[in-house]
């Protein structure tokens, strides 16, 4: 009996030790995040020389760091999720590549769109200036960060750009009424709710249909791959070269349209010449199966994910530091209205480090949602998603349409998923001739009524996109701007009551 009691006690101790270890592992990311925020506050207090308003900049820096953490945790999944879902990258490899690419993009090319976030949403000719503008931006940052954090907890990828826009609009209305908002800008942003996912879905479905037609449905898939994969990879290289020239490197270089086209064509030709022997060598001895042919897209997919992360860091760092730049500009002028915004490197550094840390500490959950829970990914489908994201941004920029990288990527995943579902159900439908059997027409089918019902049920189960996730994500998209606007307005009124 004593031995049995001792064994039970030892088992209890083992369970307690395991539970303690699991708890410490779950708390470790929070601890690291807190250390980062404390470090951002200390760094800002030493770097910024703002006189009596320095404490507001320190508070703002903490909120900026919190926002950057949430952007890294939520937005980066759009770029790495498909590659992880396709097993082209492990979770660890994706986190390392994305963290380096995001931080590099934010530091080297970030900040070009800061003036849009900080200035273009609110009218400059209103009474909203000085400390009121500071509190508007503080409320906007905190509200958008809280909303993105909630979306991350719920596993819903949302647009951090829209969250910041909603925050600035809500706080601006609370401070100076509806007339302070530049409503045409808000209208174009609202239009992107529909434009972004639709364009992403259309382009990704078209690319997948092209690959199916030219490679996967051919009798000799290897020969078709040797011909078409270099062309597709070259197209990807040209598109990404133009993408980076126009979107990802605008802070350090701004080429004209003719030069961008030349760069894209030049990169496409060089990559096509390099890809032909590489694809031929990789395809030697390969089985003539779809799964094996899809592996030829693995390396291009990894490169595409890294380039998307770089461009994302360059562009979306403004979501965190844009309002902060306005705060710093106001307080450096002693509380007067901000003029032309100049973004200090130390501000970009807080955003860059926050993006990388947020991805590493809290990103895996959203990466799994985007890459695995919406629809099943392989290398070919993930490649179509990445290529669609780049070309959609270029296409929308040429038309002057504001788009969300989050909406584009998720819409592209929906596009390949629904196309697969369409093809699968069309093939199954061809096996079913209208018959009447147990509520189903069963007269002309060359099968028993039981077989007809089985085929019908089989067709009904071919839903390759999880509807629950579609509804959840779309609901989060719709509520992002109004929810952050209301929350930001409330936070502004609280700040004004306490500090004005």
Automatic annotation (TrEMBL):
Its transmembrane ranges are: 26-46, 52-69, 89-110, 130-151, 163-183, 189-211, 223-246, 252-275, 296-314, 343-362, 382-401, 407-423, 470-495
Sorted UniProt keywords:
Membrane, Phosphate transport, Transmembrane, Transmembrane helix, Transport
Name any Gene Ontology BP term: phosphate ion transmembrane transport
Output the Pfam families linked to this UniProt entry: PHO4
Protein's membrane topology: Multi-pass membrane protein
Q: Where in the cell is it found?
A: Membrane
Cellular component terms per the entry's GO annotation: membrane
Q: Name one GO molecular function term.
A: phosphate transmembrane transporter activity
Main subcellular location: membrane
Q: Does the keyword Repeat apply?
A: no
The UniProt family comment states:
Belongs to the inorganic phosphate transporter (PiT) (TC 2.A.20) family.
Protein name from the UniProt record:
Phosphate transporter
